[in-house]
Amino acid sequence: MKTICLIGAFDTKGSEYANTGVMGSTDLFPVDVEADKVADAGGGSLEQLRERKDRGEAMKVMCAGASRTIKSLYDDGKIDGIIGMGGTGGTTVVTAAMRVLPVGMPKVCVSTAASGDVAPYVGTKDITMIPSIVDVAGINRVSRIIFSRAAGAICGMVEVDVPETEDIKPVIAASMFGNTTECVNACMNERSAKGYEVLVFHATGTGGKTMEILVKEGLVEAVLDITTTEWADTVCEGVFDAGPERLDAAGQMGIPHLIVPGCVDMANFGGMVTVPEKYKKAKRTFYEWNPSVTLMRTNREENEKMGKVFAQKANAAKGPVAFLIPLKGVSILDGDGEPFCDWETDRVMFDAIKANLRDGITVVEMDNNINDPEFSAKAVDMMLGLIGQAKK
Q1: pLDDT in tens, 353-383
Q2: Are β-strands 286-290 and 293-297 bridged in parallel, bridged antiparallel, or unpaired?
Q3: Which of 1, 74, 125, 251 is least enclosed by beta carbons within 10 angstroms?
Q4: Considering its fold, how many domains does the chain have in total?
């Protein structure tokens, strides 16, 4: 029999699924881990939290306590899935606990915040967010349907067995973007034919973060970073910023890492109205990829900064690492005659990489666009070479 963990503020939401609240428990059903235990696990005292009546402090303590409690239950093999519900406060605590669980562990959250930007709640984990439609405040003709369907969803998740395969292949992670799809698809086909399973991550900030986490969790044998564009967003404050840890994990784990400056010619924003005014005043080059995405061409200063960062990341690597550089465009838009074509600006980044790189790290420059067949073939060849080094 499978065990599903119910997590939530049972003191205020007892009738909904009737313990992360701080004001009391519920007499509607037995609670296995009471709020005082959760507070203790979070480094606080339930009594003091009640006395102070500081919601912010209570949230921090209960988030920490819920996360540690849930992780302990999972590590001990006591739970097979988790479900919770709430408003913004309850959702914050519930999803904080869910995010400590590994990808693949069933997670469902019914939330009043599920119809908006759920990135702060989901992070890089596979949390299923279900809009509550009405507030999580009692049982009514709408909430009864939503809660019942959510219960059915988590029950279905834990009952479904993931099909096993005897064909276990080593895993290579690859980063991809619309502007490098042709290259990554070609690499993926080649590597699959050579006996590898390829996990492709969309370089949208969350994608890069997720890839880094899975690498740190030991689920990946090598990384083919064709699309490192998220660093352009980090430097330019774009919407696809993956954070300063991007490019760290492979080196820290000591696994093969081939780095390509893919799509570093562009920083990403929403519609044109969302582009920071400072860039508009500077008359930067923009391209409307679609009505919701505006791309901005990176300049020499930004490229030099990225080049230094890339070299720094590679210098710290504990395993085999190398660079493959396309001299005739790092994206479709950077191809000959295309809107972002500025190979001299690209060269600033390439020179910064080479100038700051420690001895012993290979840099291969090719007289190709990143999406040329010759470039993808070389990427596969170099990736296999790095894997061979690691095996030795």
Answers
A1: 999 999 999 999 999 999 999 999 999 999 9
A2: antiparallel
A3: 1
A4: 2
